[in-house]
Automatic annotation (TrEMBL):
Species name: Hymenobacter setariae
Pfam family, one: DUF4249
InterPro entries on file: DUF4249
This protein's name: DUF4249 domain-containing protein
Amino acid sequence: MRTSLLRGALATTLGLAGCESVVPVDLPTHTPQLSVSYTLSNQAPPTGMQDFFDGRSLYVSTSQNVGSINRLAGRADATVELCDASGQVVEQFRPRGRGGYGSTDSTKGYYVPVRGYVGQPGQRYTLRASAPSVEAVSAALTLPAAPTIESGSYALDPAQPNYQYRGRLTFNIRDNAATTDYYLAYARVLDATGQPIGTVQQEYGDRNNAELAIKLARLDLSWPGYLYQMLPISDAGRQGQRLSYSSDVYLSGNFRGNSASTTPAFIEVIVSSIPAETYEFYQSIQRFYDTEGNPFAEPAPVRSNIQGGYGLFGGATDATLRFPI
């Protein structure tokens, strides 16, 4: 397969205005393979905000040639099983509907578990997936031990109007000195009854201005709905040290009125211990997006732990800490 790349923009960048050429490029032969994304957790999706961790749900599609301009489409004909260390099937999945926009068919590709199984820390699991016309794929991981969250607090900024709910969030992770560990952190807003009513958003100005090496080494709040805002951290080189979070945040949700049922009452911090493979996947996503399409940037391939295909079989062992606002 051959395609042409217009080099005019590149020539302008190099100061060679007026020099354009069309260069034929041979694209490699592509054999479609299964692409799978699924994260196993030690808990069911948090009640009241099922979409908060929707990014952990199973999604299956087929890979495309690098030169394809078609929209990636999921497939609803896959068979996916989760097995424990003995090879016993502990979870199966079925296709599910998902709301779309206009004529977009967004039901294909998404699956839900049928047994309600939750992962057990320290146990080894294998994910297997197959579909017609492509080779079967698999991936394995060990679900890590639960993290330990130390005391946290949230202080409203007295200079801000109350309805803006801006303030400073602080919490600490007590790290294990004997192992290399990897974490993701999230936070959400609860009402007085403990029901989720919103999310905690980090002020990203300082992070966006930081160098990539600093961003990859600091503890930040992740937003599970967007790959670019999945912000993992490693304790490599600082095992046993306390990992601290302290940043300006704002609360986002439907609680601008005076009704007691919609007044923010608690913040719940969720910290996930993740396997090394999950950390490497999200770290590679950060590096990929930070190249911003720059052709002169160091190559930033996205990692995959799916044998025979592409994607992520991820793990997340969650711990939570709830404290009043």
